[in-house]
Each structure stands twice: as C-alpha cells, then as structure tokens.
Automatic annotation (TrEMBL):
Native organism taxonomy: Bacteria, Bacillati, Actinomycetota, Actinomycetes, Kitasatosporales
Name of the protein: MFS transporter
Topology term for the membrane: Multi-pass membrane protein
InterPro entries the record matches: MFS_dom (IPR020846), MFS_sugar_transport-like (IPR005828), MFS_trans_sf (IPR036259)
TM region positions: 17-41, 53-75, 82-101, 107-125, 146-164, 170-189, 251-270, 290-308, 320-337, 343-366, 378-398, 410-429
Source organism per UniProt: Kitasatospora aureofaciens
Transport recorded as keyword: yes
Length: 465
C-alpha cells in the first residue's frame, strides 16, 4: 500500500482532492478572522464589556479544543468519508443562526459549535489527503492547506472592510452569516471524494481499497500488499492511549506544543489585530485598523510560499527551528519598544507574519507524517486541540493584557511563548522529508526512512473504472 500510493504519479485527482480538503482551513481562517471585524459593530450594539469581547473571541477556539480531540478519534473509528460532509453542514447551520443572535451567550454558544465543526475538519481532511498523496508531493500539498487558512483570513478582512464601507458597523450580523456561502461552495466541491484506501485496508476492507486505488490512481495493486500486519491491528486497538506510549509520546508532545506556541500569539493577533494596531497609534479609526490587520493576514499568506519550497528542499527540521528563532525577534522588539510609531509596529508585525510561514506549513504535515494510519486522525485532532488551548488563552487574555498590563508586556509575553516553541523544536523536531507515510511512525525508527523507488504499475485506460 505504502509503495503503491507513495510512488504513484501525481494527477488531476490529487489536485481536486487538495482543493476539496482546503475547505476546512479556509473556513477556519474566515470564521476566526471575520469576528474581529464584526466586533467593531457588535460591541456598541450589544454593550459588550472587555471580558465579553474576550469570551466571544475565544469561544470558537475552545470549541476547537473539544472538537479536535473528540472527532479525531471518531474519524479513525468510522472513517474519513463519513465525517467529510457532516462537519460542513453544522457550519452552515451555525452561520445562518448567527444572523439572528441577540445576546452574548447565544453568540458564544454558536461560536463554540462552529469551532468544534472546524476542528473536526482538520483530522478528517488532512488525514484523507495525506493518505492519498505521493511522497514527494506530500509536504508541499499538506503545507498548502495552511495557505487556504490565510486566504480565508484575508478574505474575511476584505469582506469585513466592504461591509464597513458599504453598510457601516451595524452590518456585523451579515458578516457573521457570510461564511454560509463558503460552506455551501465546499459542500459542492467535496461531492464524490473517495474514502482513504489506507483506512479501508486497515479496517479489513481490502477489496474496497484495491478498487478505490485502481479507480482514482489508475494503478493496479495486489490485495495482499494492502493487508494490515499484526502490529497495525494492535495499534488500531490501542487508539488514543497509543499516543502517550514510546515512541509516540514525544511526537505527540512535540506536535501539540510547537503548534500551541505558534498559534497562541498568532490567533490573538488576527482576532484583535485592529486593537493591537490601535495601541501603537494606528490612525484613521476602525477602517484603517481593519485594513492594517488585513495586510498582516496577507503577509502571513505570502510567507507560506517560500516555506513550502524550503520544507522539501532543506527539510522539515531546519525550517521549523530557524522560523521560530527569527519569529521571536520582531515580537521582542515591540516588547522593549512599546511606544514605536505605528509604521514601525506594522512593519514588525508583518515581519513576524512572514516568518511564521515555516511552522504554518508544518502544522499538519508533521502529525500526518509522524503517526500511522490507525491513529493519524487522532494525532492530528489531539495536536489541534492542544494548539487551541494556547490560541484560546491568548485570544481571551490579549484584550485584558493590553488594558491591564500595556502593549510592551503583552508583546514580551508573545515573544516568550514563541521562544518556548523554539526550545521544543530544537529538542524534539524530527526530519520526515521523503519518508514513506507508513514507515516514519514504526518504533525504533527516526523518521528518515526513504520511500521505495519501485514504480507503480499503471492500469490500462480501459480498466480504470
């Protein structure tokens, strides 16, 4: 199985699947960012306190903490395909209901459920994609999923800006409901996406796995190659408990902690970007602050592109270590210079955003490459959940910190969190570039095993089904 898929030709099928799987990250970026603009009108309309603003900002992230762990396990149990559409239907319902909210708690509950649905999509979609991709394209295409996240974030600020300009701050209900359109678009795109052949084989459905590989990859595979070995069956029965046993314990902690240290400052910045820029004296009122935050989101997106190339040419470990080291510098600068002019602050935050590209493209690459099929979605879900602890805490505390501690200490806390991420990567980051998807997680291996060079056997055009 591993050799057949890892060495299969890269085709239009892979491109379509990558596009379909990008829906979850894109919606996550949009849903988490649009609320930052919506709060401009929501705060005076509903008379929100600082604590209530923090609650609304963090609610979706708390939901992601719950949803990541819960649905990652469920996805490994019942399959990727079953969950692939259900989570989008939940997002549609919550987005529509957001238009009629009239209380803080109603908004918080809907944001919490939205967060659960978004977090469910990460282990579903990234595991499905990883289990179909050829090895030499896996790092790039998994990394591109985070590009979709920032595309969603940039789109949210563009849409929010247009609503502010055309309808004023009172249009915040339309902003919250606007994610419905994106959900429907990806529901259509995802129609017909197949189940993972690796999951099918691991669950005893070898015949189905053979047929789906031949249909979508055009390669003939021997059913005996797909049969899971006894070790794989044992791993499947262990489930979540296996993540905390050697050699997976360190990998589980690494994936969760570097993700946490990355997104804690990042999500707080994107959710409350206008407020951060205002603390540095950004002129022009709410519209200029929104445009400034949109620019930072765009730079986050641009920073992913050189990182996508580097993870495949230089390797995963050097990219993530150097990225964390350099990301600390602009945050520390703003921490020791809290009176910096708005232009300097915006430049420093854009530099931080660009340097985040390395960890960004490895957020889902690492957990998908470090764990076997039987617990892959569980591992992605757990990493997502752990990361959202940092994101929720950072998002909840940032407005309170800016008000209570000031800009300088707030930026120094963000720099310290990023430095902790650097330490985690220096100690625990492994190199998984070119590793066969089924080989890296085996006990006693270091994640450096290369994929076999045995070519896949093409199926004649008339036999592809």
């Amino acid at each position: 199985m591993s050799q057949t898929i890892d060495n299969a030709p890269y085709t239009a099928f892979h491109r379509r699947l990558a596009l379909a799987c990008s829906g979850g990250p894109l919606l996550d970026g949009y849903i988490l960012s649009i609320v930052g603009v919506a709060l401009i009108g929501m705060r005076p309309d509903l008379g929100l306190s600082t604590a209530q603003v923090s609650l609304i900002g963090a609610a979706a992230l708390v939901g992601m903490f719950v949803g990541g762990a819960l649905f990652g396990v469920l996805t490994d149990k019942i399959g990727r395909e079953v969950m692939y559409t259900a989570d989008l239907l939940v997002m549609v319902a919550c987005s529509v209901l957001s238009f009629w909210v009239d209380s803080v708690w109603a908004i918080a509950v809907l944001r919490f459920v939205l967060g659960m649905a978004v977090a469910a999509d990460y282990p579903i979609a990234t595991s499905l994609l990883a289990e179909w991709l050829p090895a030499k394209h896996r790092g790039r295409l998994l990394g591109q999923q985070i590009v979709a996240w920032y595309a969603g974030s940039v789109l949210a600020y563009v849409v929010g800006y247009l609503f502010l300009e055309l309808a004023g701050p009172g249009s915040w209900r339309w902003m919250l409901a606007s994610s419905t359109v994106l959900c429907v678009v990806f529901l259509v795109i995802r129609r017909g996406s197949p189940e993972s052949p690796r999951w099918l084989a691991a669950n005893g459905r070898v015949g189905d796995a053979v047929r789906v590989v031949e249909k979508h990859l055009g390669v003939r595979v021997d059913g005996r190659e797909l049969m899971p070995d006894p070790a794989e069956r044992a791993r499947r029965s262990s489930g979540l408990r296996l993540l905390m046993t050697p050699p997976y314990r360190r990998r589980t902690l690494f994936c969760g902690l570097f993700f946490l240290c990355q997104v804690g400052p990042l999500f707080a910045m994107l959710t409350f970007g206008p407020q951060i820029l205002s603390s540095f004296g950004m002129p022009g009122g709410t519209v200029m602050e929104t445009l400034g935050t949109g620019l930072i989101s765009l730079v986050f997106l641009l920073g992913c592109y050189p990182a996508l190339r580097l993870v495949d040419t230089k390797g995963r470990r050097p990219v993530i270590v150097w990225s964390f080291a350099l990301m600390t510098v602009p945050l520390a600068l703003l921490g020791v210079w809290p009176t910096a002019p708005a232009a300097v602050a915006l430049t420093a935050l854009c530099a931080y955003a660009f340097l985040c590209g390395g960890p960004n493209v490895l957020d889902w690459t690492y957990p998908n490459e470090l764990f076997p099929t039987e617990i892959r979605a569980t591992a992605v879900g757990v990493a997502t959940s752990v990361s959202r602890i940092g994101a929720a805490v950072g998002t909840y505390l940032l407005p309170l910190s800016l008000t209570g501690l000031g800009t300088g200490p707030t930026m120094l806390i963000a720099a310290g969190t990023t430095a902790l991420g650097l330490l985690v990567c220096v100690l625990w980051a492994e190199e998984t570039r070119g590793t066969a998807l089924g080989a890296a997680p085996v006990a006693g291996r270091t994640g450096t095993a290369k994929t076999s060079a045995v070519p896949a056997q093409r199926v004649p055009q008339t036999a592809r089904g």
